[in-house]
Amino acid sequence: MSNEYRKIVEKADWAVEASGLVKTFGDNHAVDGVDLQVPTGSIYGVLGPNGAGKTTTIRMLATLLRPDAGSAKIFGYDVAKDPQIVRQLIGVTGQYASVDEALSATENLVIFSRLLGLSRQESKRKAEELLEEFGLTEAAKRPLKNFSGGMRRRLDLAASLIAQPPLIFLDEPTTGLDPRTRNQMWDTIRRLVKSGSTVLLTTQYLQEADELADRIAVIDHGRVVAEGTVDELKGSIGTSSLHLSIQHTQDMQDARRIVEQVLKVQSAASPEGGKITAPMAHADRVTDLLIALREQGIQLAELSVQKPTLDEVFLTITGEGVKEDKQEKEGIA
Amino acid sequence: MKNQPIMQATERHLKNHSGIGQVIRNTLTMAYRGLLKIKRTPEQLFDVTLQPIIFTLMFTYIFGGAISGNVQNYLPVIIPGILVQTVITTSIVTGVQLREDMDKGVFDRFKSLPIARIAPLAGALLADTIRYTIASTLTFTMGYIMGYRPEGGLGNVILAGLIVIACAWAISWIFAFFGVISRNATSVQGISMIVLFPLTFLSNAFVPADTLPKVLQWFVKFNPISHLVTAVRELTNAGTVGWDLIISLVGAAVIVAIFAPITVRAYMRRT
């Protein structure tokens, strides 16, 4: 395969290809060696708690921040070497609306269109078109100061779509939106991908990643701790999970010990108390577990077996459950 | 949403540098943005409206008798001086406002757009020449009301005004630089005042330099502000063009040549 040809294939395959991205702010390793591969034409979710390094990663991919180490390519173009080319291929919608507060929605869109090289008339037409698409026509002339959070977000996304970029970064696109507006935003994102865009979105909401993303990278403390399709991730922590509520919370330790002994897995106790969850590979084991609990005289309030949710995946992977364990044990000792 | 297919990366015509045409277009668009903002919040023009009126009145009547014997004789000396001082002071506001502007999310978008890197800064500075124009017009108008009749004629007065505006635009790059590197808008104001106060007052703007101690005379002689003031005086009062004008313009060009690139660099480095 000639080099030239390989280059073209790579460009077509990966919208984003990042390896070993590092960004340090003082002592804070915000991003500590992130690898990402986003296939063209997909919705890719970057999932992580607050402060995990999601925004910093996006800012490096979008040429807004220079990586301290590692490299990133957008459609084969290096973000450090060809930043101006990369900027022609991306649209960025930040966590905080990046539009001009002092101006009206139309003025904002016209200015961004003009900056992107559209003529005066084209810019006006484009602005009208986008405002209509995003249901902002009525508010077009009002200054943004009077806009609701949802309207601002929509305008922000509209501004990212002026040049119809093949790759769109959405940094927490629905944080702080009410459920209805959030669903509208999801629909918009799905339509974007249908028209051929690749979308890379960050989110703290597992449900959002579950709803939208084809593939997910779970990121924690500046590192990718898990990557795969939603199903793969769910599969990685067992096929289903056991939810157990006991009647007397003083039996908690005993109950957990039995669950862990019988199922041979780590269990997690929910913060509300009285609830235990554990991954479960075989439903058969429930019988053994119930017998063992009866023998110990532990009374159950409720028991169910559920398919895993991304929440559990997330908590298992980021080790939040494990941390709780430690604290409890230390407390007892 | 219309399901217009998106042009994929491989089919696009891409280039990694912005040509001079794009630099100018982008800068003008950003300047248009600046003007729209001024139009939306006209109260930010208070300072450029009030300062020329108050300062011209104040300095003329305070110093007029002491320096030139009477107010009438002092006007040809003070009006060019106060013009330079007012307009250049106004350019501090440019730095302060740029700093405030940069803290807003919209600057992130400007950075992520494939536009000339200098445009967001140059455009903002260009839009602010409207302030300098207002300040210049008001200063000359106040002078006229108080009885100033420049011998150079209206054409030269306008030319002098334009030169001061151009120099103020050049100097505003210095304050833009402070704006980009400092932590907040207040500190821009602080640093800028410390730089500008000695520069404007230790010049020939208000008093003839030969009344000063030797050391200060030496400073005043080399102070670029003095050259600009002298250039304006020559133009407005005699209609002549001398060395001082050339020095002023060359100085302005040097400032832009130094400060524009380092400001853009610092701006790009900011997170």
TrEMBL record, chain A:
The keyword Transport applies. One of its GO terms (cellular component) is plasma membrane. Residues 16-246 form the ABC transporter domain. InterPro entries: AAA+_ATPase, ABC_transporter-like_ATP-bd, ABC_transporter-like_CS, ABC_transporter_ATP-binding, DrrA, DrrA1/2-like_C, P-loop_NTPase. Keywords: ATP-binding, Cell membrane, Membrane, Nucleotide-binding, Translocase, Transport. One of its GO terms (biological process) is doxorubicin transport. This is ATP-binding cassette domain-containing protein.
Automatic annotation (TrEMBL), chain B:
It comes from the Bacteria. Signal peptide: none annotated. It is a multi-pass membrane protein. The chain crosses the membrane at residues 45-68, 74-98, 118-145, 157-181, 188-207, 245-268. Keywords: Cell membrane, Membrane, Transmembrane, Transmembrane helix, Transport. GO terms for cellular component: ATP-binding cassette (ABC) transporter complex. It is found in: Cell membrane; Membrane. Residues 43-270 form the ABC transmembrane type-2 domain. Its main location: membrane. One of its GO terms (molecular function) is ABC-type transporter activity. Belongs to the ABC-2 integral membrane protein family. This is Transport permease protein. It comes from Robertmurraya kyonggiensis. The lineage of its organism: Bacteria, Bacillati, Bacillota, Bacilli, Bacillales.
